[in-house]
Amino acid sequence: MLKKELEIFSFNDLLHHFPIRHIDKTQVQPISDIHAGTDFIQVKGKLMQMDIIGEKRGKRLVVQIKDQTGSLELTWFQGIHWIQKNLYIGSEYLVFGKTGFFNGKPQMVHPEIEVYTPAKSGGASFLEPVYPSTEKLKARGLNGRQIGKLTQVLIGSLKPTDIPENIPEQVRQQLKLIGRYEAYCAIHFPTSEAIYKKALERLKFEEFFIAQIRLQLVRVQRNHFSKGVVFEKVGNYFTDFYNHHLPFALTGAQKRVLKEIRQDTGSGHQMNRLLQGDVGSGKTIVALLSMLLAADNGYQSCLMAPTEILAQQHFQGISALLKEMPIEVALLTGSTKTAERKRILQGLLDDTIHLVIGTHAVIEEVVQFKNLGLVIVDEQHRFGVAQRAKLWTKAAIPPHVLVMTATPIPRTLAMTAYGDLEYSVMDELPPGRIPITTVQRNEMKRMQVMDFVKEEITKGRQAYIIYPLIEESEKLSYEDLMQGYEQVKTYFPEPKYKISMVHGRMPADQKDTNMARFVKGDTQIMVSTTVIEVGVNVPNATVMVIESAEKFGLSQLHQLRGRVGRGSEKSFCILLTGSKASKEARERISIMCATNDGFKIAEKDLDMRGPGDIEGTRQSGELNFKLASIVTDKGMLEKARAVAEKLVHEDENLEKPAHEGLKIFLQSQKTRFGWGKIS
Ligand code: ADP
Ligand code: MG
After folding, report:
1. How far is the CA of 42 from the centre of ligand 1 (A)?
2. In terms of C-beta density within 10 A (0-12 exposed, 13-18 middle, 19 or more buried), how is residue 415 classed?
3. 212: Cβ below 6 Å to ligand 1?
4. Number of domains in the chain
5. Which atom of ligand 1 is nearest to the CA of 286?
6. Which of 151, 270, 410, 549 has the CA that lies 20 to 30 A from 81?
7. Span from the CA of 288 to the centroid of ligand 1 (angstroms)
8. Mind listing the pLDDT tens digit for each residue in 307-350?
9. Which residues constitute the domain of residue 121?
10. Do residue 279 and residue 322 come from a single domain?
11. What is this structure's pTM?
């Protein structure tokens, strides 16, 4: 039962089943204290009456208890027979639960109940833990307190040597952290509020510290075991392109990142770098220049994009830039025709193709390279860790890997989810960009908004109108989109206006045709669901209208907004909302209106949603801390990171006697990733 309901399989699991709160057993309140605003309360009373009433689903056990001040009704809907059997009229019970009122009378539903025994005075612990349980377990009488009793027995039987220290003494002293054994005892059975806080602090730090040590070890070990291909020189391809074909001067940030990439790829170690840049910061050109660097050193490169449209756009853009250069570029996606695919596979094998751009197809198909030296993953949010790992099989010496994010992710998140990667930031936009103006409008004002869109189109610009994609109801989104499309057509009648539409249910080739027409400027309006979200580059588009903007997440809104403001003209983002937007939705919208800074938005997003929901990180178990939170314990994470980095830097095999406890601990854990190389 414990196993299935709470995933507690061992003593160790029980030890890590932390209390949700502690209660002071000596604090029993009179029943008459219960009022409308009472939350949880503990009372003591005599059981007066007990009846099973109601029929079928309404069947319930109703119990009356009474103290000197009043009476309270307790109700159970589940496990009623079992509970009834274990309660006795006339006995005194201690009852804990959340109160409510029913027909004007105070009531508790599914309270915790146990026979009252006076609290032992002078006992070691006066704060009693309350553990998370489930309704099902409670129904069987195994409530939080019973779990507590099991835990008490367990802790009582443990010796300090059973919970050996894993944080080096020096670190503990420096940070004033209590010992591990002490911490486990105190988190379950604290003798005071203060010691509970110390225990919590220690165990939170331990969670961050161990995770960061692992990441650092992965990084260091990878540098050791995996030789990297060496890009020794900057050659003709790079220089020629830089001097003659680069359409603009690089920003300072672009130059800096290129330098970092140069250093990594020349070091003899495999590069594993995360490039964080805001939407429109110009990551593509950095990718291209890196690939030319690979070519200069005789290596092939591969650029992966998350969608077909994006892969195509990269292919077209890069082919155009490389038009006059003797570099062979190919596009390989799921819809590449058989003959063409054959040609590409052969070309990659005999190195007549130097650069391949594609979707997942590039790694999932039987694609082999003659000498793959560099893999760039664009807009990585949609590529999982597992997919990245597949790249390792593509070459004897693993290729360098550059992962580029679609939108920034907060530093703490990057530190945990991608903590084994080196990290570059592009925090500068190309010059001459005019900031996008973002406004919120009520749906009732749609007419005025469309008039504004008309004005822009009259000036020769293009516009996006985006409808939400509701995951749970693809059908609903589709209908919304179709309805919207019809409406847009009435505002913008053909043939004066031309409209493209793209949505998830469309066959790929149709999607591409429609997209291509908009990219070329044949159509002025793109009506779409979020499929265009990532990466698409149409500099002439200056208006982004987002319907039902309250339904989008922050980073998604930011990513969508990034589709405009890419040219030399002033751009606008208009967020249409209904009147029923929630408080959080309104907050998201006001953040969007207040800032264009993707890094700031990412931080807010994390604060508002917590780490579990940030796109692309859901599958990463590295974020599953039991006590610590990368949102509320940021400072501690930074500290753990710094300490771990220093420690591994000084003793990468954990050979020093001071690190023995840590080493033994790491080895004893079956880990998702241990000492080997992974990415
Ligand atoms: P993202 O980082 O979002 O992928 P892109 O690489 O698509 O951004 O670049 C956005 C736009 O900015 C493109 O039109 C690109 O040509 C342009 N761009 C990139 N770098 C510069 C630069 N240094 N100066 C001027 N324009 C640039
Ligand atoms: Mg991009």
Report:
1. 63
2. buried
3. no
4. 4
5. 6
6. 151
7. 12
8. 787 888 899 999 999 999 999 999 998 889 999 999 999 999 99
9. 2-157
10. yes
11. 0.73
